[in-house]
Amino acid sequence: MGDMTSIESIPEGASRRIVVLGTGGTIAGTAAAAGDNVGYTAGQVAVAQLLAAVPGLQQRCEAGWTIESEQVAQIDSKDMSHAVWRRLAERVQIHLDRPEVDGVVVTHGTDTLEETAYLLQRVLAPSKPVVLTAAMRPASSTQPDGPQNLADAVTVAGLPGACGVVAVLAGKVWAGAEARKVHPYRPDAFDAGDAGPLAHVEESRVRRLREWPQGAPLGLQVLAADIWPEVQIIVSHAGADGRVVDLLMEAGVQGLVVAATGNGTVHQDLQAALLRAQSAGVAVVRALRGGSGCIVPTGHDLVPDAGALTAAQARVEILLRLLSRRA
Questions:
Q1: Which residues, listed in sequence order, are joined to residue 123 by a DSSP beta bridge?
Q2: What single string gives the DSSP state of each residue in 193-260?
Q3: Which class for 157: exposed (0-12), middle (13-18), buried (19 or more C-beta within 10 A)?
Q4: Cα angle at 267 between 323 and 116, to 5 degrees?
Q5: Cα(46)–Cα(74) distance, integer angstroms
Q6: Which of 10, 59, 149, 191 has the highest Cβ tally under 10 A?
Q7: Is the full-model pTM beyond 0.85?
């Protein structure tokens, strides 16, 4: 079997135009003390300031690049909302539609990055690169990881031939629909399960291992509804029963993702309630509770599975399916 690695770089002297959209997150966070990497407040530094703090980007501008910035939101990504998702998707599409723009970078928090990346790939499936980047240490840290991540993200966004939504962190490029956060503290906090990284960024060169993400876009119209469907995540565990499902049904839930044990297994009492919900028209799907891999169908499953998606990504998928029925 041959070597599938492809080394890609931006031609010397090439002029590129990149738009960087800020949404907040740890990459824009600050703490009272420079040595504090956990007790910070996210979303404090404007995206224009973040760009100004990356020396390599100034050098690229001097070499003929144009790097624009726009503040779309300024939040801790744990507080991501459907409204911010819609505005972000709209702003990304507007800039992608500009013929002079080569790529878009989105600065984001790590907590919900996997959900935003999945949504943007499914909705936009862009023919130009859309690169999400983030940080595990705040901008005020004595050793911030944000500046290098941002520089690497701009490199990928400016790469001729790149496309789709990807995430760039700690020198690795992850397909947006596969990335997930797997560690709460270390800078190398992301993974993609069995799929592995799509590429590595090494000294402004990209060593690509797989093809860039592609797909058929759902289109922005899918996000147009003012009120989005109610989709919740529940967990199967020892002692789980169906009471939470019954309560959610009373509250009008339209979709349920169950974070399942093992190979997509669900406590028998909880499954009985899920089957009642499914019979009542609620969209129900099983996703992995943790770890890597993919749910392997048994041939007699009563509740459909989400394959290799995390529970959070599966929730986004159910949301989009329900929204698509309204569009």
A1: none
A2: GGG--SEEEETTEEEE-SPPP------GGGG--SS---EEEEE--TT--SHHHHHHHHTT--EEEEEE
A3: buried
A4: 30
A5: 8
A6: 149
A7: yes
Rounded-to-integer distance, Cα 262 and Cα 288, Å: 8
Strand order in the sheet with 283-288: 231-235, 255-260, 283-288, 305-310
Specify the long-range contacts of residues 198-201, CB closer than 8 Å, at least 24 apart.
Answer: 198/166, 198/173, 198/174, 199/156, 199/172, 199/173, 200/171, 200/172, 200/173, 201/152, 201/155, 201/156, 201/168, 201/171, 201/172, 201/173
Q: Token pair of 135, please?
A: 């940080």
Structure tokens at 278: 């499914």
- Among 23, 26, 107, 116, which one carries the catalytic annotation? 26
Q: How far apart are the first and last CA of the chain?
A: 45
Question: In this structure, are residues 85 and 223 in contact, taking their beta carbons and an 8 Å threshold?
Answer: yes
- Per-residue pLDDT of 71-108, as tens digits, reads 999 999 999 999 999 999 999 999 999 999 999 999 99
Say how far apart CA 271 and CA 277 lie, in whole Å: 10
Residue 14, CA atoms < 13 Å, CB-side half-sphere = 12
Cβ atoms of 181 and 189 closer than 8 Å: yes
Rounded CA separation 193/201 (Å): 19
Asked whether the beta carbons of 127 and 119 are under 8 A apart, the reply is no
User: Any catalytic annotation for residue 30?
Assistant: no
DSSP strand pairing (17-24 vs 103-107): parallel
At residue 2, does pLDDT exceed 70? no
